[in-house]
C-alpha cells in the first residue's frame, strides 16, 4: 500500500504535558492580580496607569525587536508582559511615563534580548531595570505618593526610607498590620504582603515556583535582622517589620523565583535563597540604600552559573550499594 | 646638580639591582625550554593581553611550538608578524592545487521523493536517531546541514534539500567531511569538475526506484572513458581524479545524469 | 602603508579599544565627560608618541633580554613627565584624571605598540604609528565620553543643554554605565567596521 | 580588628577593584572565558599583589620619601613590580614546577595589569601603615578574584546561551560587567 | 634564535637608561615644581577667596594650623589684616557620614562667628543628588547664620536647615560640618587666638 | 506498602483502553518481511537464500557471537528475496521476504500445533537452560531486545541473589503484558521456575503496577504456594518498569552509575520474555511471535493481537477498524518510549509491544521553544540528571568532561521531554549527546 501522505517522524516521547511556557507566564501574571488590586485600591488610577504603560511598553518593545532580530521571538508568550507587570510593581505609582519607557527599554533590551531572548538571560530583567532606574533617578524612585484614597500629590518615604534616614524611633506609629495589608508607602507591588502571598500560594500549589528560595529568603532576612534587633532594639527595626516591608515578599516569591535566573539544582536553590536573604539584610542594615532586595537578587543571579556548576544534585546510583 | 644626580643614582641603583638579580636568577634557576618558544615569543607583540585566549604571549608561543599549529591568530600582531612566525616554525601554506569539498548526491526533493514529515531536531545526526533517511534513497543527503554548521568559512548552504558548496569560499579544510553522518562529502581538486554525484550502492533497479538521478552501476561510463579514470564497484561509479582528463565522455554517456560537471561558471 | 590608511585602521578596524580591547581601565574610568576623555586620550598619545620614538631610536642598543624592563622605564619616564606637566599646567584636569595618569604606564596599548611596532620600525614610522594609535584612542574616549555625558549629565562638552532641574540618567556617569555604554559602542563599531571592510573589497 | 574587617569588606565589595575602581579590566575581560583559567589568574594576582604591596611600601617609605623623590614613584614602582614578577616567575619555574604550571603562565600577564600598580599607588596615597597595606592589597586582590570568578562563571554559562552574533564576545561581556557593577552598587555606603 | 648579549652589557644598558630617565625626570621636576606648588596654593586661595567673600585686605598663613574638635582634626587659616586683627577664618572640616563617605569642606567664618560661605573641596556624593550641596539654592541658607541663632539640624530632625530634596543624608552631613567649623572658630576665640 | 522509586517520574494518563480485550489471533498474512536484526548486539548472518522453502521455526539468520541472537521463521513458506526495508523506528535494515504457504489460515491453529512436552526442569543444568534460550533466539521483550541468554550469564564474580519479573507495564496504552499475565499465567509461572532453577533457587519478585489489580490477584493466587515467589504491587508512576527504578522500588537497591542490574545482584526479565522461555522448553518453540497492543485515537476497537514477527503493520488495519486515511502519526511501542515510523509496510519485530495510530493533532505538535530553566525536566528525571543543563551543553557542543558519564546514564525514558513546558526535544538531544560521546571514543 502506497502511503499517500507523509507520516510524522519525531523523537520519543510523543506524549507531552499540557503545560506550556505561555501558560506558565500568564498564570504568574494572573496570580499578581490580588497585589495589583491592593495597589489600585491604594493608589487609585495611577497604579493602573503605571501597569498599563509598562505592559504596553515591554510587549511593544519586544514586538519591535522581533522584527529586526535574527532569531525568532514570540513576544506574546507572556514573559515580556510579566516582566512589564513586575517592573510596574517595582516603581512608585507616580512614576512619569518616560521613566517607565526607559525602564521597559532596559528590561527588554539590556535585561533580556542582548542575551538572546527568553530563557537566555543571566539577570532578572525587571530587576535590572529597577536597579537601573533606582540609581538613575533616586529622587523619583525613593519618594512615593502617600497611599490611601487621597489623590493629592503628597509624597513621602517608604517605611524603609524612613528607617534609613530617621532611625527606628520614627517608625513608632507604623503598625505591622498596616504593613501586612498595604497601608504604607511603597512601590506598587511591595505594599501588600498578604495579597502577594495569596498569589504565591497558588504558584506553589501549581509548582511553578519551589519553596526553597522564598522560604529561605524570608527566613534568613528574619533571622539576620532579628539578631541585630535583639542586640539593640533602639537602633535596629524588628525582624517582622523587615520582612513585611519593601520588596521582600515580592522579591522572594515572584522575582527570586524567576526560573530563568535561579539555579537548576536543589542545593543551588537553597544557597541562592540564603544568599538573597543575607545580602538583603546586610544592605538594609549597613548600606546607604534603604532597600536591598533588588541588589541581593541581582548579585545572586550573578553566581547562579557557579551554583549550577558546583552544586549538582544527587544522581541515581551515586551511592554504591552493590 | 645633586638634585639631578641623586635620583639618577637611585633609579640607576634600582635598575642595577633588578637586572643583576634577574640575570643571576635566570642563570641559577635556568630551565631548558625549546628555543623556538622563545623565538616565537620574541616575534609576538608581547602585549600579554590574553586576547588570543592563552594566558599571555609566551603561553601562546608555547602552544604554537608544542602543537606546531597556528590555528589561533594573535589579535595584536599584523599579518607580517604572523608570516614571520610561520616562517620561524617552518609552517608554510601547503603547496599544491586547492581542494574543495564535493557532495556525492544530487537527491534534491524533486529527484528523490521525501518519505517522512520530520519534526525533530534539525540536524543530520539527530535525525539519524529517528530514521535513517528522510527521502526514498537511503544514501541521500538529509539536507539538515550538520556539515554547514561544521564549516567555518560559510562555504555551504542547503538548497532543495541537499547541500550546495561554494567552490570560491571553500578552503578545503575538510572540517565538513566527518560532520556528515552519511559520508557524502569528499575533497577533490578544484579543477576536476567532473564528479559522480551519487553514493548509492544498491542494485540498479532499486537505486533507480529510489532516485531519478542515482548511479545505477550500468558501466557505460567505464566503457567510454579513455583514460581508465572511472570504475564501477558495488553498482557505483567512482572517478580517479589523478587520471581524469575532463573529456566529458562519461558525462554524456551516463543515462541518469549521475555524473555531472560542477561549477562550470567558476571555470570558464 | 599610507598615512590615511593607517589612520583609518587606528580609528576603526584596529582601534586600540574597540578593536583590540586594550587600555580599558582608563577608557572606562575617565570617560564620564567628553573633556576628560580627550584629556586622557591626549596624555596617552603624548606618551605613546614619545616612547615609540625613543624605542625606535634605541631599538638596536637595547638587549633583548631586558627589553621589557627597558621599555617600561622609557614609558614610565614619559608618563611621569605628563604627570608633572599636567599638574603644572592643567591642574583641574589632573585632579579628575587622578590615579589614571600613572597607570598609563601599564596601559597595554603603549607597551604593545613599543614591542610590536617601534622596536622594529624606523623613527618616522613609529612616530606616525604613535600619533595614529594615540588619536584613535582619543577618538574612542571622546565618543564614549560624549555619550555618557549627554545621557548621564545632559551636557555636551560641559555645556548643559537641559534645564538645571531636569533629571538625567545618572547611571551613565557611574561605573555600570561605563561598562554598558562601551558594550553597546563595541556593537556599533563592529557594524561600522563591517561597512568599512565591505567597501574595501 | 573591626577596622580591619571593615577595610577588607570595603576592598572586596564596596570599593571593588573592578567594579568601582576600574583597575585590571583588560585581564578581567581577557582571562575570564574559562573558569579554570580565571581561578588560576585570581590566585596569581593575589600572590603578586600582596607581595607588591609590601615591597612598594618599603620602597616608598624607606627610599623615596626620605630622599624626597616621590616624583619617581611611578617609574620605581613599575620597575620593582616588573622585576619582582619576573623574579618570582624564574624562581618558581625551577623550584616549584607544579605551582608554576598552575600560576606561572599568568605571571607575565600580571606585569601589565594596572590593578597591581594601581592598588600599590592607592595604598601609598591613603597613608596606610605596613600591616594595613598588606591587608588592603590582599583584600583588593580577593575583590578582583571574586569579580573575575563570578564573571567567568557567567561567561562559561553564556557558551550555552544563544547570544545574538552582534553581541557575542566582548560586548555582552561588558554588558554583564555593567550589570554586575549595578548589583555591586548595593554595597555602596556600607563602609564609610 | 636571537643572539645572547653578555650579562654585562645587559646590565649596563638598563642602568644607563634608568640613569638618563632619572636625570630627565629630575630636570622636569625642577622645572615644574614651582608651578605645581603655585597651582596648589592657587586652589587654596581660590577656595579661601570664595568662603571669605567680601573680606578684603586679609592675609593668611601658608600652612594651615591644626587642632582637634570632637576628636577629629580640623585645619584652619586665620585671616588677619596687616595689624594682626582677626577678620575671619577659613576652616577645613570633615563633614561626617555623607551618603558614601565623609567629605572635606571649607567654611568661611567672619570675625563675629557667622558663616560667610561654604566650599566643598572633595566629595564622592552622588552627582545630581548630593552634589547639590555646592550649588547656590542649598548653600545660600547658611550665610550669616551663627552657632547661636540657628538650630544646626535639618528640618526633618527638627532643626532649621532645609535639606535638599532626596538628599537628606548629605544635607545632614553638610550641616554637621558647618556646625563643626563654627564650633572650631568659637573655640579659637575662646582660647584667645 | 507503597512500592515505588523516589527520584523523578511522571504521571501521564494511562489510556489502557485495550486492557479488557483478550488476545486475538488473526489469519496468516500474505507476506512476511522478517527483520534480520531485532536485537541489541552483533548483527546476525542470513542463512536463508532466495528460493528456499522453509518451515515454521527454521533458522533464517544465525547469531554471530555471544551478544547476538538467532532469528527463526514464524511460518513455513518460500523465501522470495532478501531486501532492505525501513523498520519500525526508521532504520533501514535487511529483511527476508517470505511468502507463507498457509496464507489465510488461522494463525491460532498453527501456534497450537506446536508439540507440548512435559519436561522435568530439575534435570536441566544451568548451561542447558542458557543454551536452549540462546538457540530459541529469545531477546528481551520489554523493549530493548537484549539477548536474554547474555543477561542470564553473569560473570562469576557477580552473585545474583534476586530475580525480578517485570510486569509493570508503565507505558500508557500498552496492555500486551497485562493480557499475557492474565491469559498465560501458568506458562509464566513455569517459565519463572526455569529461571529460578538457573540461578539456584533465588527469591523471585513479580512487580506489577496497581492499575492491573486483576493481574496482581491472579498471579498472587497462582504463586500462593511458592514461598520464594512474591508479587509486589507497585505505585502507578512512570517509568516504574525501567529496570533500575524497578529494582529500587522492590529491593531498595540502587544500581550504581554506569552499572548494570547484576552489579546489585539482580536480573530483571519481562513477563513476555519469561513466557518465551517457557515456550522454548515446553513447546520447543523459538521466539517467532508476540502479543501486540493496537490502540490510539484512530482505532475504533483497541485490542491485543498475537502477531508473527514480520507481519506488516497494514495487516491490522481492517481487524481493528483503523481510520487509515487520517493517520498522520503512528508509533511502535508506547507514547513515552516508542518510535515513530514512516511506512505502513514495515514489519513488526520481537520487541514491538504496541502499534498506536493517531491523527495530526492528537499529541499537540508544538515547536521547540527556548528552555526557561524551569527545572521540570530535572524533577521528572528518574535518573536524577540535570537534563536542561546537559542539553544546553550538548547543543552548544561543549559537553563538560565530568558530565559525559551522566549523559550516558540516561535511560531515554522520556519523562523529561514529557514534563517540559517548552517542548524541548530533550530525549533526542540526550541521545544526540550520547552519539557524540560514543563517536569521540
Ligand atoms: C543612586 C542613589 C544615590 C543617592 N545619593 C544620595 C546622596 O548623594 N545624598 C543623599 O543624601 N542621599 C542620597 N541618596 C539617598 C536617597 O535619595 C535617600 O532616600 C534620601 O537621602 C532620603 O532623603 P529624603 O528624605 O530627602 O528623601 C541616594 C540614593 C540613590 C538611590
Ligand atoms: C553492553 C551491554 C552489556 C550488558 N550486559 C548485561 C549483563 O551482563 N547482564 C545483564 O543482566 N544485563 C546486561 N545488559 C542488559 C541491560 O542491563 C539491559 O537489560 C538492557 O540494556 C535492556 O534494558 P532496558 O530494557 O531497561 O532498556 C547489557 C547491556 C548492554 C548494553
Ligand atoms: C523507561 C523504561 C520503562 C520500561 N518499562 C518497562 C515495562 O513497563 N515493562 C517491562 O517489561 N519492561 C520495561 N522496560 C524494560 C526494562 O528496563 C527491562 O529492560 C526489562 O524488564 C528487562 O527484561 P527483558 O530483557 O526481558 O525485556 C522499561 C525500560 C525503560 C528504560
Ligand atoms: C515564577 C516566575 C517568576 C518570574 N519572575 C520574573 C521577574 O522577576 N522578572 C522578570 O523580568 N521576569 C520574570 N519572569 C518571567 C520570565 O521568566 C522572564 O521574563 C525571563 O527572565 C526572560 O527570559 C518570571 C516567570 C516566572 C514563571
Ligand atoms: S568545511 Fe572546509 S572543506 Fe568543507 S565546505 Fe567548508 S571550507 Fe570547504
Ligand atoms: S551532506 Fe551530510 S551532513 Fe550535509 S546536509 Fe547532507 S546529510 Fe547532512
Ligand atoms: S530520558 Fe534520560 S534525561 Fe530524560 S528523564 Fe529519562 S533518564 Fe532522565
Ligand atoms: S523542562 Fe524544559 S524548559 Fe524546563 S528546564 Fe527542562 S528543558 Fe528547560
Ligand atoms: S588598562 Fe587596565 S588592565 Fe589594561
How would you portray this structure in words?
The complex is a heterohexamer of chains A (about 325), B (about 270), C (about 200), D (about 190), E (about 190) and F (about 450). In chain B, about 35% of the residues lie in helices and about 15% in strands. By secondary structure, chain B is of the alpha+beta class. Chain B has a two-stranded antiparallel ribbon. Chain B has a two-stranded antiparallel ribbon with strand order 3-4. A two-stranded antiparallel sheet of chain B has the order 6-9. In chain B, a hairpin with a 2-residue loop joins strand 7 and strand 8. Chain C has one domain (about 5-200). In chain C, about 70% of the residues lie in helices and about 0% in strands. In chain C, strand 1 and strand 2 form a beta hairpin. In chain C, helix 1 (about 5-15) packs parallel to helix 7 (about 125-155), helix 3 crosses helix 4 (about 65-90) and helix 4 (about 65-90) packs across helix 6. The mean pLDDT of chain C is about 85. Chain E is α+β, with helices and mostly antiparallel strands and about 190 residues long. Chain E is built from 3 helices and 5 strands, in the order H-E-E-E-E-E-H-H. In chain E, a hairpin with a 5-residue loop joins strand 2 and strand 3. The termini of chain E are far apart. The model of chain E has no long low-confidence stretch (mean pLDDT about 85). Chain F is an alpha/beta fold and about 450 residues long. Chain F has helices spanning about 105-110, 125-135, 150, 175-185, 185-200, 215-220, 245-250, 270-280, 375-380, 385-395, 405-410, 415-420, 425-440, and strands at about 25, 30-35, 45, 55, 60, 70, 75-85, 90-100, 160-165, 205-210, 230-235, 265-270, 290-295, 305-310, 330, 340, 355-360. In chain F, strands 1-14-13-17-15-16 form a 6-stranded mixed sheet, covered by helices on one side. A 4-stranded antiparallel sheet of chain F has the order 2-8-7-4, with no helix packed on it. Chains in contact: A-B, A-C, A-D, A-E, A-F, B-C, B-D, B-E, B-F, C-D, C-E, D-E, D-F. The interface between A and F is large, with 47 and 73 residues. The structure holds flavin mononucleotide (FMN) (3 copies), riboflavin, iron/sulfur cluster (4 copies) and FE2/S2 (inorganic) cluster. Riboflavin binds near residues 24 and 257 of chain A.
What's this, in brief?
The complex is a heterohexamer of chains A (322), B (268), C (201), D (192), E (193) and F (441). Chain C is mainly alpha-helical and 201 residues long.
Task: Give average pLDDT of chain E, whole number.
Answer: 83
Strand order in the sheet with the most strands of chain E: 1-2-3-4-5
- Count of DSSP strands of chain C: 2
Strands in their spatial order, largest beta sheet of chain C: 1-2
Q: Any idea what the shape of chain C is?
A: globular
- Report how far apart the termini of chain C are: 18 Å
- The residue fraction in helices of chain E comes out at 25-40%
CA radius of gyration of chain E is 23 Å
Which class best fits the helix and strand makeup of chain C? mainly alpha
Could you give a short account of the major beta sheet of chain E? 5 strands, antiparallel
End-to-end Cα distance of chain E: 76 Å
Instruction: Work out the helicity level of chain C.
Output: 55-70%
Radius of gyration of chain C: 18 Å
Amino acid at each position: 500500500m502506497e502511503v499517500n501522505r507523509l507520516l510524522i517522524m519525531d523523537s520519543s516521547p510523543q506524549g507531552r504535558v499540557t503545560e506550556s511556557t505561555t501558560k506558565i507566564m500568564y498564570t504568574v501574571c494572573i496570580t499578581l492580580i490580588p497585589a495589583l488590586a491592593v495597589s489600585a485600591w491604594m493608589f487609585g488610577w495611577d497604579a493602573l496607569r503605571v501597569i498599563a504603560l509598562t505592559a504596553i511598553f515591554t510587549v511593544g518593545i519586544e514586538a519591535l525587536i522581533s522584527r529586526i532580530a535574527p532569531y525568532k521571538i514570540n513576544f506574546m508568550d507572556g514573559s515580556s508582559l510579566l516582566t512589564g507587570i513586575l517592573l510596574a510593581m517595582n516603581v512608585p505609582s507616580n512614576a512619569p511615563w518616560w521613566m517607565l519607557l526607559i525602564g521597559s527599554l532596559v528590561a527588554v533590551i539590556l535585561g533580556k534580548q542582548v542575551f538572546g531572548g527568553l530563557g537566555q538571560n543571566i539577570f532578572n530583567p525587571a530587576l535590572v531595570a529597577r536597579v537601573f532606574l533606582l540609581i538613575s533617578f533616586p529622587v523619583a524612585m525613593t519618594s512615593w505618593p502617600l497611599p490611601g484614597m487621597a489623590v493629592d500629590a503628597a509624597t513621602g518615604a517608604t517605611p524603609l526610607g524612613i528607617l534609613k534616614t530617621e532611625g527606628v524611633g520614627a517608625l513608632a506609629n507604623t503598625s505591622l498590620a498596616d504593613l501586612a495589608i498595604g497601608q504604607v508607602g511603597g512601590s506598587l507591588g511591595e505594599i501588600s504582603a498578604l495579597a502577594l502571598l495569596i498569589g504565591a500560594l497558588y504558584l506553589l500549589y501549581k509548582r511553578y515556583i519551589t519553596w526553597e528560595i522564598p522560604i529561605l529568603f524570608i527566613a534568613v532576612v528574619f533571622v539576620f535582622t532579628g539578631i541585630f534587633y535583639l542586640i539593640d532594639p533602639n537602633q535596629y527595626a524588628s525582624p517582622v517589620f523587615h520582612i513585611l516591608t519593601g520588596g521582600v515578599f515580592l522579591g522572594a516569591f515572584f522575582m527570586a523565583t524567576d526560573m530563568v535566573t535561579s539555579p537548576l539544582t536543589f542545593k543551588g536553590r537553597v544557597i541562592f535563597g540564603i544568599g538573597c536573604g543575607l545580602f538583603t539584610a546586610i544592605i538594609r542594615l549597613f548600606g546607604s540604600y534603604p532597600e536591598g532586595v533588588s541588589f541581593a537578587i541581582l548579585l545572586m543571579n550573578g553566581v547562579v552559573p557557579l551554583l549550577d556548576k558546583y552544586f549538582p544534585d544527587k544522581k541515581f546510583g551515586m551511592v554504591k550499594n552493590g | 646638580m645633586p638634585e639631578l644626580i641623586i635620583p639618577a643614582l637611585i633609579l640607576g641603583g634600582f635598575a642595577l639591582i633588578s637586572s643583576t638579580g634577574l640575570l643571576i636568577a635566570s642563570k641559577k634557576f635556568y630551565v631548558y625550554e625549546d628555543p623556538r618558544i622563545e623565538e616565537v615569543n620574541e616575534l609576538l607583540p608581547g602585549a600579554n593581553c590574553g586576547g588570543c585566549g592563552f594566558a599571555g604571549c609566551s603561553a601562546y608561543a608555547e602552544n604554537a611550538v608544542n602543537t606546531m599549529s597556528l590555528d589561533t591568530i594573535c589579535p595584536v600582531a599584523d599579518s607580517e608578524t604572523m608570516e614571520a612566525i610561520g616562517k620561524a616554525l617552518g609552517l608554510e601554506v601547503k603547496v599544491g592545487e586547492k581542494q574543495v569539498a564535493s557532495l556525492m548526491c544530487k537527491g534534491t526533493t524533486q529527484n528523490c521523493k521525501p518519505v517522512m514529515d520530520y519534526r525533530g531536531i534539525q540536524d543530520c545526526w539527530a535525525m539519524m536517531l529517528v530514521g535513517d533517511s528522510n527521502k526514498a534513497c537511503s544514501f541521500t543527503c538529509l539536507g539538515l546541514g550538520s556539515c554547514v554548521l561544521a564549516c567555518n568559512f560559510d562555504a555551504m548552504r542547503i538548497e532543495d534539500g541537499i547541500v550546495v558548496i561554494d567552490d570560491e569560499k571553500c578552503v578545503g579544510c575538510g572540517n565538513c567531511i566527518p560532520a556528515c553522518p552519511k559520508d557524502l562529502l569528499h575533497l577533490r581538486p578544484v579543477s576536476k569538475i567532473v564528479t559522480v554525484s551519487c553514493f548509492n550502492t544498491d542494485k540498479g533497479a532499486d537505486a533507480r526506484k529510489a532516485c531519478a538521478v542515482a548511479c545505477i552501476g550500468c558501466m557505460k561510463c567505464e566503457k567510454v572513458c579513455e583514460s581508465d579514470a572511472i570504475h564501477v564497484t558495488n553498482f557505483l561509479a567512482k572517478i580517479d581524479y589523478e587520471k581524469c582528463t575532463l573529456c566529458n565522455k562519461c558525462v554524456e554517456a551516463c543515462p541518469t545524469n549521475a555524473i555531472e560537471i560542477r561549477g562550470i561558471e567558476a571555470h570558464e | 602603508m599610507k598615512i590615511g590608511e593607517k589612520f583609518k585602521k587606528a580609528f576603526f578596524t584596529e582601534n586600540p579599544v574597540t578593536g583590540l580591547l586594550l587600555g580599558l581601565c582608563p577608557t572606562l574610568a575617565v570617560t564620564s565627560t567628553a573633556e576628560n576623555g580627550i584629556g586622557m586620550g591626549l596624555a596617552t598619545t603624548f606618551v605613546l608618541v614619545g616612547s615609540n620614538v625613543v624605542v625606535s631610536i634605541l631599538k638596536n642598543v637595547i638587549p633583548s633580554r631586558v627589553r621589557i624592563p627597558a621599555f617600561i622605564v622609557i614609558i614610565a619616564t614619559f608618563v611621569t613627565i605628563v604627570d608633572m606637566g599636567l599638574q603644572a599646567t592643567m591642574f583641574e584636569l589632573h585632579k579628575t584624571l587622578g590615579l589614571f595618569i600613572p597607570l598609563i604606564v601599564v596601559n597595554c596599548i603603549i607597551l604593545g605598540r613599543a614591542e610590536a611596532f617601534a622596536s622594529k620600525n624606523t623613527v618616522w614610522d613609529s612616530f606616525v604609528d604613535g600619533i595614529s594609535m594615540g588619536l584613535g584612542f582619543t577618538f574612542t574616549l571622546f565618543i564614549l565620553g560624549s555619550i555618557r555625558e549627554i545621557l548621564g549629565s545632559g551636557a555636551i562638552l560641559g555645556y548643559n543643554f537641559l534645564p538645571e532641574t531636569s533629571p538625567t540618567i545618572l547611571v551613565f556617569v557611574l561605573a555600570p554605565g561605563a561598562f554598558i555604554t562601551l558594550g553597546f559602542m563595541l556593537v556599533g563599531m563592529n557594524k561600522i567596521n563591517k561597512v568599512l571592510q565591505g567597501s574595501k573589497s | 580588628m573591626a577596622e580591619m574587617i571593615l577595610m577588607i569588606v570595603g576592598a572586596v565589595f564596596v570599593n571593588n577593584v573592578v567594579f568601582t575602581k576600574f583597575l585590571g579590566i583588560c585581564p578581567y575581560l581577557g582571562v575570564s572565558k574559562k573558569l579554570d583559567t580565571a581561578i588560576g589568574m585570581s590566585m596569581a594576582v593575589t600572590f603578586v599583589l600582596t607581595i607588591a604591596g609590601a615591597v612598594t611600601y618599603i620602597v616608598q617609605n624607606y627610599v623615596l620619601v626620605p630622599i624626597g623623590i616621590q616624583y619617581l614613584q611611578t617609574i620605581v614602582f613599575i620597575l620593582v613590580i616588573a622585576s619582582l614578577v619576573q623574579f618570582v616567575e624564574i624562581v618558581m619555574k625551577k623550584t616549584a614546577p607544579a605551582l608554576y604550571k598552575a600560576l606561572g603562565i599568568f605571571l607575565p600577564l600580571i606585569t601589565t595589569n594596572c590593578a597591581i600598580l594601581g592598588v600599590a599607588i592607592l595604598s601609598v596615597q591613603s597613608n596606610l601603615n605596613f600591616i594595613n597595606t598588606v591587608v588592603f592589597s590582599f583584600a583588593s586582590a580577593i575583590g578582583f578574584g571574586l569579580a573575575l570568578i563570578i564573571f567567568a562563571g557567567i561567561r562559561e554559562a553564556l557558551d550555552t546561551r544563544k547570544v545574538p552574533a552582534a553581541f557575542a564576545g566582548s560586548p555582552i561581556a561588558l554588558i554583564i560587567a555593567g550589570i554586575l557593577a549595578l548589583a555591586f552598587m548595593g554595597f555602596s555606603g556600607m563602609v564609610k | 634564535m636571537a643572539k645572547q648579549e653578555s650579562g654585562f652589557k645587559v646590565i649596563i644598558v638598563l642602568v644607563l637608561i634608568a640613569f638618563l630617565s632619572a636625570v630627565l625626570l629630575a630636570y622636569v621636576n625642577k622645572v615644574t615644581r614651582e608651578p605645581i606648588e603655585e597651582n596648589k596654593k592657587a586652589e587654596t586661595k581660590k577656595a579661601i577667596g570664595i568662603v571669605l567673600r567680601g573680606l578684603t585686605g586679609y592675609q593668611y598663613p601658608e600652612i594651615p594650623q591644626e587642632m582637634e574638635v570632637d576628636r577629629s582634626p580640623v585645619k584652619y587659616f586665620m585671616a588677619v589684616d596687616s595689624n594682626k586683627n582677626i577678620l575671619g577664618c577659613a576652616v577645613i572640616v570633615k563633614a561626617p557620614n555623607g551618603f558614601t563617605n565623609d567629605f572635606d569642606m571649607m567654611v568661611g567664618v567672619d570675625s563675629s562667628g557667622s558663616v560667610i560661605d561654604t566650599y566643598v573641596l572633595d566629595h564622592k556624593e552622588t552627582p545630581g543628588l548630593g552634589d547639590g550641596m555646592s550649588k547656590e539654592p542649598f548653600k545660600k541658607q547658611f550665610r550669616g547664620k551663627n552657632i547661636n541663632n540657628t538650630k544646626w539640624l535639618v528640618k526633618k530632625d527638627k532643626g532649621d536647615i532645609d535639606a535638599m530634596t532626596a538628599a537628606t543624608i548629605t544635607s545632614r552631613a553638610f550641616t554637621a560640618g558647618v556646625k563643626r567649623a563654627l564650633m572650631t572658630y568659637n573655640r579659637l576665640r575662646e582660647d584667645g587666638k | 506498602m507503597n512500592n515505588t522509586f523516589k527520584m523523578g517520574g511522571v504521571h501521564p494518563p494511562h489510556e489502557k483502553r485495550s486492557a479488557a480485550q483478550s488476545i486475538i489471533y488473526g489469519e496468516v498474512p500474505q507476506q512476511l518481511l522478517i527483520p534480520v536484526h531485532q536485537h541489541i548486539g552483533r548483527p546476525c548472518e542470513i542463512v536463508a537464500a532466495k528460493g528456499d522453502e522453509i518451515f515454521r521455526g527454521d533458522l533464517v539468520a544465525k547469531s554471530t557471537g555471544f551478544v547476538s541472537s538467532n532469528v527463526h521463521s514464524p511460518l513455513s513458506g518460500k523465501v522470495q528475496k532478501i531486501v532492505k526495508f525501513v523498520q519500525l523506528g526508521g532504520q533501514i535494515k535487511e529483511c527476508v521476504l517470505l511468502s507463507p504457504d498457509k496464507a489465510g489460515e488461522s494463525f491460532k491453529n498453527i501456534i497450537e500445533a506446536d508439540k507440548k512436552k512435559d519436561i522435568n526442569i530439575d534435570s536441566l543444568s544451568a548451561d542447558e537452560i542458557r543454551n536452549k534460550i540462546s538457540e530459541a533466539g529469545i531477546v528481551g521483550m520489554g523493549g530493548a531486545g537484549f539477548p536474554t541468554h547474555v543477561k542470564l550469564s553473569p560473570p562469576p564474580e557477580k552473585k545474583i541473589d534476586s530475580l525480578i519479573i517485570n510486569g509493570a507495564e508503565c507505558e500508557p496504552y500498552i496492555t500486551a503484558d497485562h493480557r499475557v499475565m492474565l491469559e498465560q499465567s501458568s506458562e509464566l509461572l513455569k517459565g519463572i521456575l526455569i529461571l529460578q532453577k538457573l540461578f539456584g533457587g533465588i527469591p523471585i519478585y513479580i512487580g506489577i503496577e496497581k492499575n492491573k489489580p486483576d493481574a496482581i490477584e491472579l498471579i498472587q493466587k497462582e504463586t500462593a504456594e511458592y514461598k520464594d515467589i512474591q508479587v509486589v504491587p507497585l505505585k502507578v508512576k512512570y517509568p516504574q518498569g525501567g529496570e533500575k527504578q524497578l529494582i529500587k522500588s522492590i529491593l531498595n537497591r540502587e544500581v550504581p552509575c554506569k552499572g548494570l542490574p547484576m552489579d546489585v545482584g539482580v536480573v530483571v526479565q519481562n513477563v513476555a520474555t519469561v513466557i518465551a522461555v517457557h515456550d522454548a522448553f515446553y513447546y520447543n518453540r523459538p521466539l517467532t511471535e508476540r502479543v501486540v497492543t493496537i490502540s490510539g485515537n484512530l482505532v475504533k476497537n483497541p485490542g491485543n493481537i498475537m502477531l508473527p514477527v514480520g507481519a506488516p503493520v497494514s495487516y491490522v488495519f481492517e481487524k481493528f477498524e483503523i481510520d487509515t486515511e487520517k493517520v498522520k502519526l503512528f508509533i511502535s511501542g508506547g507514547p513515552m518510549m516508542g518510535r515513530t515510523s514512516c511506512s505502513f509496510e514495515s514489519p513488526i519485530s520481537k520487541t514491538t509491544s504496541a502499534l498506536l495510530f493517531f491523527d495530526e493533532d492528537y499529541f499537540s505538535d508544538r515547536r521547540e521553544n527556548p528552555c526557561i530553566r524551569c527545572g521540570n525536566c530535572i524533577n521528572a528525571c528518574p535518573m536524577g540528571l540535570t537534563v536542561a543543563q546537559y542539553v544546553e551543553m550538548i547543543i552548544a557542543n561543549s559537553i563538560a568532561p565530568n558530565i559525559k558519564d551522566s549523559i550516558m546514564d540516561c535511560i531515554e525514558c522520556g519523562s523529561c521531554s514529557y514534563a517540559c513546558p517548552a517542548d524541548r526535544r530533550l530525549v533526542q538531544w540526550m541521545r544526540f549527546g550520547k552519539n557524540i560521546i560514543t563517536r569521540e571514543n
